[in-house]
Amino acid sequence: MRPSLAQLEAFFWTVEFGSAQRAARHLNIAQPTISLRLKELSDHLGIALLERTGRGLRATPEGRALLPRVATVLAELRGIVGHDPAREIVGPIRVGLAEGFAVTCLAPLLGALLEDHPGLQPEWFVSTSTTLEAQLLRDGLDVGVLLNPIGDERLTMIALGAQPTAWAAPTAWGLKGPLTPQDIWSQPIISNPPPSAMHRQVTGWFAAAGLSPSRLSVCSSVAVIAELVAEGIGMSVLPERMVARLVTEGSIQLVATNPPVEDGRLFIVSRAGSEDAKVEAISATIKRVLQQIGYLRSR
Fold first, then answer.
1. Domain for residue 154, yes or no?
2. Tell me: the pLDDT tens digits for 194-208?
3. Is-contact 218 190, C-beta < 8 A?
């Protein structure tokens, strides 16, 4: 018996979401139906396609080898059912994402791109915006979502909006806001190294009061900084959505300050003068995803 398209869809979306339950919601069918189709496909092929990891599922080595062929079959089916020139955009594209943005937005962006442009083959680079901006200037990336880019005439920047940002402190410190720069300049502060957007936000906030933090440590990873704050090591300026889980768990608190921290500004950045349909396609998907998940602060 040949595998069915329904079984291939069940396999593809379970791998994509790492969960049979999420795949079932995406396909608008019951989870037991997904599980049955996965079992039937595995039985038909005589190989184990999925394995458990933590709370989710991932493809086995045999499943990973099969996945590109399944993706091709499903892409061809979409082309047969409904011809859409936008879906014919194919090929590799190098995409850079500011780390604080990527922690929250990369997962929904991946799913949306598979829906919008299954033929695209994005290669993701996650780092600080200044590192990504340098890569764009060196032609190491095709497009990026950057926070407070420095800017260069060789780059085109399209404003997305404000990324909600706040001072984050260990809940165990018991700080009560609103806090001023004079209140916390002597506290341990953690930031990305200069000239990163985070470092400019942190030092700029203190500089407006004629101060500089006396105990400033630097770390290249925004996600690691959030964990350090949760462990009580220091304070930092962080994207609110990125630390929402830690706030809910009670290890981090977002502290009101006077003056408030200025929200970061997100931009889609690409090289000036390049007219690439893949860049335009991924930019449109990024905008749609941000609107759907309500990521940007409304004004």
1. no
2. 999 999 999 999 999
3. yes
